[in-house]
Structure formats: C-alpha cells, structure tokens
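Much of the work behind modern protein science is quiet bookkeeping, done one molecule at a time. Below is the pair of lines this work produces for a single protein:

***
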Amino acid sequence: MAKKSKTVFVCQECGYESTQWMGKCICGAWNSFVEEKVMPASGEDVRSRSREGAKPAQLSQVGTEHYERIDTGIGELNRVLGGGMVKGSLTLISGEPGIGKSTIIIQTAANIAAKGVPVLYVSGEESEEQIKLRADRVCKEIPDTLYVLAETNMENVETACENIKPAFLIIDSIQTLYSSQLDSAPGSVSQVRMCGSQLMKIGKTKNMPVFIVAHVTKSGDLAGPKTVEHMVDCVLNFSGERDQEFRVIRSYKNRFGTTSEIGAFTMEAAGLKEVKDISATFLETREEMSEGSVTAAIYEGSRPVMFEIQALVSPANVGFARRTSVGIDNSRLNMILAVMEKIAGLPLMNQDVYVNVVGGLRPDGTSTDLAAALAIYSSYKRAVPAKRTLAVGEVGLTGDLRSVQNAEKIAKEAARLGYEKIIMPKRNADKIGASIGACRIISAKNIQEAFEAFTS
C-alpha cells in the first residue's frame, strides 16, 4: 500500500517542524510558520549502514588521514580555506548581493578547469549567456573543460554530474534549487534542507569539492535553516562596502583549517584582485599625524592588520548629543565614552561623537578600544602626536588597560611599517621590552597614562 504525504508546518526562521500551525515559534519568531507537504521516502534508506559495517574502531588505532587539497589558483582564498579545497568537502559562501560572490567562484572555476579537469557551474539565478559575459570580463581565458548549466531541479543536477563527472561543482544558489520529492517552493526550509543533503551525498560519494552560494537576510545572517550550516564543512562570508573596492572573505567554520584567517581583495573592472599587504592598503592614503586619527591593529589568522580609526568631536547644538560609529559596535563606543567621562574627566556629555574605521573594515574583538579612545581624545583636545603612533589594548570599565593577544607580532609589523611609537597595556609591554628596532614601546596601566603618552 502506497504511503501518503503528510502536512507539516515549518518555521522559516529556525526550521522547527510542527503538526499544527502556531502563532509563535519556540525560537521566538511570530507568524513564521508555513505549510509544507512532506513526501514519504521511497526505497531503502541509503543513509543506514549494513549491520556488518557497524563495528566500532579503536581510536588509538585510527590513522590520521592526509586530506588532499586542490589549489584554487587564488592565494587569498587558499589561505582562508586552510591551504586549498579538500576533496569531498562542502563549502558554503555567503554575502550581500553585488559583493562579488559570483565573481570569485567563476574565477576559481576557470583556474581549476585550466588544469584540464571538468568543472560544472550550476546557476539557478542567471542564464548561460549572463555567466559567459561575466567570464569574458574576469577570466583571461575560458577553458574548454568549464561547463555551465542553468538549472533549478536537483535531480537534473545529479544527472549532469553523472554525465560529465566534474572534479569541482558550484551551485549558485541553493535557495533556487528544488527537489521533485517535495511539493514546497524553492527556497523553503524543507527544500533547502533536502537539496543540501543531496549535495552532500554527491560531494562525499564522488570525492569532489562542492561550492554552495547562499543568500543572506537583511541582518546579514545566512538565510534558511541552520541545518545547512551544520551540514557543510566550511562557511565563508564575503563582506565589504559596495561603494568601495575593498572586500574581505572570512571563515566562520572550517573543519579542515582555522576560522581566524581572512582573505583580502579589491574589486576591479577585470574581477577580484588579491591584496597581499592589507596594512599598506588601509594606510596608503593616511595623512601623517593628523588630528583625530590613530592607527589601530588586529591579528587575523597568521598576520597582523593595521588600519586607521578616525574620530570627530564637535559641540552638540540642540537636543541630545549624537553617538555614531561605522565599523565599531555602537554599544562598545558608548562604553568607551562613559569611561572617558567618569575616569578621565573629559566632559563629552554635550559633544557629538563620530567614529569611523577607514576602508570599510569591521574589526572583531576589543583590541581597538584604546585606539578609538585616543582618536576621540585627539579630536576633542585638538592634540596631534609628535611621532607616528599605533595603539592596541582593551579598555576596562575601571579605566585600566587589559592585555591583548599577539601584541608582539603586531609590534614587529608596526616597526616594519616605520611606526616610531606603540602604546599598549603594561602587561603586553613588559613581555616585549622597551623597543623593537627604532620603534619605542610605551607601557600604560590605565587610560589616563595612555592619554599622557599620546601627546608626549
């Protein structure tokens, strides 16, 4: 007797399934449930293993497998992936529209296809002619082994993979795919989850890497159920300001490498170009010793990144004073201003404060606290340092400066770039010493000492 399909209600926010419609989901979202029909699985469950194969292995006797990696031909992408793409891995790449996702994957596809292996680019959003136009613009030469398929049906994609047996598969994007096994529309929770499972099966069984492009929500998070993020081996995010050339690709999950690496690119007419020296790119237009400007630094993966933080402090004319920040969390800025008022005695209550990270970078962590505070201090006091100065450190609520990681590596990079003075927490300075080459290390216990060292 044939099994009948059943109707379930699925939350579009978290993927929670219920047999009845609910106004509020367990994740807290209201009116997020949609009705979907689930078809019964046909045939034998391919996910289950035979009973003979269910034999536990001694962990001490399991050998460490050497994962063979594929060179993408793009050094910055290789860095973020941990040295290249691993065969059989699934990589999810996301980013806002127009940020450069399709550009970087067509460049990667052309580089791998140039080695003489077949590569399949599946697009559900663009026609084959549109992809060809982009490839003509960003690729020096289009290899004969690069195949394109404008398709949204998952079963047809599987058939195409069987026909040409690609060494690399690209899906752009997973929200446009649908499986005939489900009645729901493409992009729904059930369809995204089903197509993700089928792509994982294709990649693992055929031992080929798969790139999956995913949409993002208005808040910048990945659209669709979290199940897909847990399923894939690597999650990459492409970020940057659309009106600026600089782009950053960051790994938020990587089973075959670190999640602290970033790759830097600039968007040009001929596609994405790698940025080898990020610090020089951010600081190339920096005016020396300008008012309200301080150089900050963070350590990303295996390299330090220097960038400029600017601040503007001006009297508030009417109403409450404004606090605006770009690149720095606004709540963090309010905390720094409160410490400067309470501990350092700066009357900023009636001052408008604007803080900006130059270049569109959005640094994580708290190592930029001191640089932001010094930039505000410099603008308010109209103070300019006598020497090229860099600042790193976390500002505590008591006004003390907390140590940051990799301060020694940051100091060495600052000395290489010609900085003459580095202000940092005392704990970091004690480990490094009084100087690195011609660069002097200034130790500061609290924010008052940092202000004094800034102008001395």
